[in-house]
Amino acid sequence: MSCATFNVAVSLNLHGCNKNAVSKSIGFRHHTTFHKFSSLFFETLNLSSTDRSFVRNTPSRAFHSVFKCAAQNSEKSPSVGVDTENNSERVTVLVIGGGGREHALCYALQRSPSCDTVLCAPGNAGIASSGNATCISDLDVSDGASVISFCQKRGVGLVVVGPEAPLVAGLTNELVKAGIPAFGPSAEAAALEGSKNFMKNLCDKYNIPTAKYKTFTDPSAAKKYIQEQGAPIVIKADGLAAGKGVTVAMTLEEAYKAVDSMLVQGDFGSAGCRVIVEEFLEGEEASFFALVDGENAIPLESAQDHKRVGDGDTGPNTGGMGAYSPAPILTKELQSIVMDSIIIPTVKGMSAEGSKFVGVLYAGLMIEKKSGMPKLIEYNVRFGDPECQVLMVRLESDLVQVLLAACRGELNGVSLKWSPGSAMVVVMASNGYPGSYQKGTVIENLEEAEVVAPGIKIFHAGTAFDSEGRFIATGGRVLGVTAKGNDLEEACDRAYRAVENVNWPGGFYRRDIGWRALPQKQYAKKE
């Protein structure tokens, strides 16, 4: 292929790209071919198959980075629901975190018309190689002063805090005090997730429907109460336990063991110094998300996740093994009931308590079998993981402007637009999760898996590069293989086709994500 032809290809791709994004992406260690976009440009240039092979296999990182930039520009979403027509604001956004949720947020923010640059601290290898954000791995996100200094130097106009730990630690308090818009609740408001006892007390005070409960610090008293109530029963660590501090005990012995694990053995540290013993609710779980600006709340689309590690909802609880959106269980009528009886009373209650909530309220709900009505199981104060993945691929609004409106207390009247159809994410986890698991196992064929069907996006939750530039697993939940479809059946088929193309002997996944909403025949072919 002539140098002239190569230069034409580069100039076509560089047109309109963010030069900073290109220069940053040149340094990526992982070799990426960008088949989706290269094919389009090759057709435009009418290149021969020999020339196409030459370009795809050229070692130039700079050449591959231009396809990455083209991908970013081609996926920009229209501005919907927030008036940005007269707003020339182009915002540099910093996302705090490095998991699958943060990857999905970077993906949606980078597609926002009003977004100039997305930075992610610390990020991970998959986020960096995807081109969805520039990762800042050396920024200490636990040090508020360092984050503030970084934001001021880089002209950051919005900080989006992904995980719960920095929220509970008060990072947004410090950012807001420094005059930096930050999407996420204050430390005081984050107690809704940081302390289940706090959340339960708020429910009692403001008549928010939830399961009957009692709180204990003495193991003997807890066991006596459990014996009185009988099994099944639910035992929860009061504090943050990375999604693993809940035991649904089907026998008294299992419940006693959970109490001892938390209050006697100290398996969850300070998070387990107090336990909540809660009645077992029979029904179907669902996730409900709302954006809150302190006084107003607007609902996001519905989603449903799968907490148990095994098919058929068996085995121990996890952080989530998959999700889909929308969730048929959450009808429009039920969504209205949730807003009126759970979300709005919580927002008003927090305001009355002097801790206005700004951020995402993620309500874990149980739709009771006997009444068909929703009860609040727990609150999270951030986007759920993996629900965030299916929500972000469906969102068509300008996320930057929506989140800024929340920060400014201006959500009243804001509407969101979602793509029609459905989305599903299947989590691929390291063998042994949620127990002990091996780190460093090699993952291959991710690029090929992402192009086996339209509408596929693989979000990285726990990956790094090894010395040879290959992806390796560094966590329990490692990949979120996400797909959109015209309906849930198509989204499911696409997601599992992609999963089956990922070459990772060290990982596993559930084969029945979406089973409650899909006919059983959908899964016969996966056995």
From TrEMBL:
Tagged with keyword Metal-binding: yes
Residue span, ATP-grasp domain: 200-408
Pfam families: GARS_A (PF01071), GARS_C (PF02843), GARS_N (PF02844)
Single Gene Ontology MF annotation: ATP binding
Keyword presence, Ligase: yes
Keywords (A to Z) from UniProt: ATP-binding, Ligase, Magnesium, Manganese, Metal-binding, Nucleotide-binding, Purine biosynthesis
UniProt pathway annotation: Purine metabolism; IMP biosynthesis via de novo pathway; N(1)-(5-phospho-D-ribosyl)glycinamide from 5-phospho-alpha-D-ribose 1-diphosphate: step 2/2
EC main group: ligase
Cofactors (names): Mg(2+); Mn(2+)
Any one biological process term the GO annotation gives: purine nucleobase biosynthetic process
Gene3D superfamilies: 3.40.50.20, ATP-grasp fold, A domain, ATP-grasp fold, B domain, Phosphoribosylglycinamide synthetase, C-terminal domain
Catalytic activity: 5-phospho-beta-D-ribosylamine + glycine + ATP = N(1)-(5-phospho-beta-D-ribosyl)glycinamide + ADP + phosphate + H(+)
The protein's Enzyme Commission number: 6.3.4.13
Family according to the record: Belongs to the GARS family.
Protein name (record): Phosphoribosylamine--glycine ligase
Species assigned in the record: Phaseolus vulgaris
